[in-house]
Design goal:
There is one protein chain. By secondary structure, the protein is an alpha+beta fold. Strands 1-2-11-10 form a 4-stranded antiparallel sheet. Helix 5 runs parallel beside helix 23. About 1% of the residues have low confidence.
Amino acid sequence: MPIADDFHAVASLEDVEASGRELASVDGTPIALFAHEGEIRAVNNRCPHMGFPLVEGTVDDGILTCHWHHARFELSCGDTFDPWADDVPTYPVEVRDGTVYVNPNPPRDLPPDEHWAERLETGLEENLRLVVAKSTIGLLDAGVDFRDPVETALFFGTRYNDSGWGSGLTILGCMANVIDDLPLEDRKRALYTGVRHVADDCAGESVNFDQPSFSTDAVPFDRLKSWFRDCVEVRDRAGAERCLRTAVATGRSEAELAELVFAAATDHPYLSDGHVLDFANTAFEALEHADALDDSGGVSGRGNDPIAGDALAAVVEPLRTAARSDERSAWRQPIDLITLLEDVYGGDVSETSGLEELVDEGAGTSWSRPDGFRSTLLADDPEAIVDALADAIGEGATSEELAAEVAHAAATRVAQFGTANEFGDWNTVHHTFTYANAVHVATRRTDAIELYRGVFDAALSVYLDRFLNTPPAPIPESGEEDTGRDPDAILEALLETFDVDGEVNEAGRLVSEFFDCGGDPEALKRTLGHGLLREDAGFHTLQNLEAAFRQFDLADASADDAASDLESRRRTPLIASARYMAAHFPTRREAEQTFTIAARLNRGETIHEE
């Protein structure tokens, strides 16, 4: 019976001292009692690591050791010696008249949101997947906005990885981008996926000792932009970082920062197979999720928001070290694609004077996509592709309008990828698609003329990928797969294809059938997201889904678009991603195993027993 309202009788002192340990329960809380060095100690019986009963552990020299994974705890306070284990809750004990009393609900040092925030930092620092999983699940269960842990991981990933922005931070940004399309449980999976990849990327890396901004506000933007591009061109990391941090610190707008970064990212075509511009675009997107961009579209003022400077400065290293496609034979032989670009740009790949003339020519006019434009983008004549894009600019086409068309062509390459090709060639069409998607999104952030170069570069990469559509996998016409089947049954069948190796074409067909049978595209996105997040999906697969979702969301009918054109724009990227996923699934699902264990532990379930 309770005494003093808080303490409950749980065992006789004689029994605890005789056995050295006893198991008790108060209101469903399992409590392990230990008699040690003349004191009675009480801890939660569930090991905070994997839930094994601590009453079956060993106490020696004031240390309680769990027998499952040998996590060690200081018995009197519950603090762990092992960061991967977490601290075990302890309970106040009183002995009265030979009876042991325990208070099962003492005030805790930290509320759940603060506890899990601290544990998330430990998981990142020690690269502990189970701790990251428990923390991300715990934070969302505590009602924390997912953007808070995204910001924590963003700060960690930029501060503790001297290699700069890489796959881990990109995955974090991609998962933040799709999280609103997912149900709660898969939101937890998405957050876990992003954070664990950041932790993995930073493991063993050197700390980034950043460069300061210049101690002046007087440098004009155009000069700062020129300095930044020049530093990147000669691969000067310190100089480029100081220029970029100065732009952030002096309160340059988001559009200006984007112009500065994307200008350098397109001074050479298709840097590092498109990764560099994609990284830069994702850095801006991650800053939006971290709420590091103010209401007017800029960033916080000098010294008030270091995360903006850290995130954008992290892009400098991949920019500086990027492989330049104008130095690759594929862009020079048998047709010199670089010369085609230089003729349009103004005599050099880093020029824009030719583009500026075309823009001036088209000023004040609105562009309408001509017949055959899309087929030209997918044809095998690079000169015709370049001419079609140049003509469109001269007719008033914006960089965003053209980027949308090229992104659709790139998605078509993935949707029609021939499975007779080598498996590694999936990544060739994938890189073009994600690059084109990044260019498209970037054009919505800034109208900097340099992004026209990104459009041309993406279009010529689509051209270079043409043989990977030989023969092209068919994309069913709208209505061709109208079987009348229940859309939910089609989604179940789609998930089943991911359980079988090589069901690439069937996955694409099922997406078409789902659309034709009137299925809700949001349900399709949830299913694709779940299918992705239960797998040990790699960097490219995670990227691919995010790009497909973004292109679906950006599909929009212009004044002269027929309904069938809009439908193609909407379904093609999702067909492409379903095929790409099917080519890379199933996996061992090790990450899902860790996630499931973490979720069960957070719910208080017993893991060591079936």
